[in-house]
Amino acid sequence: MQTIRLRVNNKVYSNLMWFLKRFRNDEIQVINEDSNFMSVQEYMKNEIHKLESAEAEMMSLEELDDDLEITIRKYED
């Protein structure tokens, strides 16, 4: 599936949305770029940058397992 991003004049917005809603969800999905979407997108871009620039802090599976066990024990009580 391809993604496109459009800037639409207010005069044609409702007509365009009417047209797009005629398609099934598996054919076209309208993605609303609200503030939550934009913040998640920015977070993911930063995380990818950290990975590509080797700035990301990595942990082994054993370290992850230990960390999860500590977190689980903390909230079990």
Brief sketch in words of this structure:
This protein is mainly α and 77 residues long. It has one domain (10-76).
What can you see in these coordinates?
It is a single chain. With 77 residues, the protein is an all-alpha fold. The chain has one domain (10-76). Helix content is 58%, strand content 0%. It is built from three helices and no strands. The protein has helices spanning 10-20, 35-52, 61-76. The longest helix is centred in the middle third of the chain and has 18 residues, at 35-52. The mean pLDDT is 92.
Coarse shape: elongated
Secondary-structure element series: HHH
User: Share of helix among residues?
Assistant: 55-70%
Approximately what portion of the residues adopt beta-strand conformation?
A: under 5%
Radius of gyration: 21 Å
What is the count of structural domains?
A: 1
Our measurement of the CA-to-CA distance between the termini, rounded to an integer number of angstroms, reads 46 Å
Question: How many strands in all?
Answer: 0
Poorly predicted residue ranges: none
> Could you tell me the mean pLDDT?
92
Relevant terms:
single chain, mainly alpha, 77 residues
Task: Set out the fold topology.
Layout: H1 10-20, H2 35-52, H3 61-76
